[in-house]
Amino acid sequence: MPDYVATIVLTIATVLTGLAAGVLALYSHTIMPGLGRTDDRTFVAAFQSIDRAVINPWFMTTFFGAFVSIGVAALLHLGPDRRVALAWTTLAFVLYLAVVVITIAVHVPLNDAVKAAGDADRIDVSQVRARFGEARWLAWNHVRTCAAIAAFAILATVLAVT
Q1: Predicted structure pTM score
Q2: How many domains does the chain have?
């Protein structure tokens, strides 16, 4: 496989991972703190709306495309002359795998429960918000954000030195 193919895939992985890390970071430092300052009805309605909006081709391509492209980038560095890059891209893959697992295991069920609760004008929003567990959601978002940023930094470094 020509070196430029590995470089192109690594570039794609780096860009997508950086974009995904940025989205997750935005939730940590802006979206959730902002929603946290709202009343229960506003929180539930806004969270439902945001979560429905984020399930779109742009985000899904970014989020899962990062995962796939990091894996492919690692595989393209299997040659004996690419072992250092292989080790680092594999570490980035493991970190991003943690992002995906946390998202599926923690965030998706919590998000889905809020969406399934129903229209914010017709439900007990204080009960829905209390069951949601903002602190847990945010704490795990910080973890996945840090993992995504670390994966991005590793990929950017590998890209810069290879």
Answers
A1: 0.94
A2: 1
